[in-house]
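#lab-general

N.A. 3:47 PM
ok so I finally got the sequence cleaned up, no stray characters, all 191 residues accounted for. can someone with queue access submit it? mine expired

B.Y. 3:52 PM
send it over

N.A. 3:53 PM
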Amino acid sequence: MTIPRPIRHKLATGLLATAVVALAGCASMGGGGSTKKLPAADASAQLYDARGADRGRADFYRDSDGLRIELVARGFAPGTYGMHVHAVGQCTPPDFTSAGPHWNPTGAQHGRDNPAGAHHGDLPNLVVEPGAIGRATLKLVGTRLSGEGGLLDADGAAFVIHAQADDLKTDPSGNSGARIACGVVELGAAK
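B.Y. 4:20 PM
back already:
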C-alpha cells in the first residue's frame, strides 16, 4: 500500500516531534565527555540575536532521506519556542524580517496539525529545560540542500527561532511571535 505524500509528511513530522521532545529531555540530563569526533556539517547557520550575541548553531547534514539538522541553542530562558527554516538567506536585525516567510517550495499551508499543511520550513517546537542548553535533532524529509528544489536556492535560506511556541496549525506562521534569533544557512561548517 502506498501512503499519499501529505500523509507521509505528516507522519514523519509527528514522529520527529516525538523524537525532539525526547531529546530535549535528555539534553537536560547532561552527558559524559565523549571524545568521538563528529563529521563536518554540509551546511551551517550561526544564530545571533538582535544585539549580535551568539545564540547557538544549526548544522545541516545530508542523509539518505533528506536533511538532518543538529541544533544547539544558547542563552534561551526555559520555555517553548517556535523554529522554522525561512526562505531568504538574510538576517538583518532587529526583527529579522529580511529572512522572508517560511521556506515553502510546495505551496502548502503551515503546521503539522493543519489538515492542509505542512510545508518544508515547518519544524517542531524547541523545548528548553531549566538549567539546560536547547538541543534538538530535526529532519527535513525529502529535502535537498542544493540543486533544483533545494534549500539553498538563488536567495539562500535562514534558520529562525521565534519568541513563542508554534501552535502547529495557524497559517502562515503558527502564531509563534517575533523572530528572536536568526542564522543564514551557508555551505560548510560554521567557523
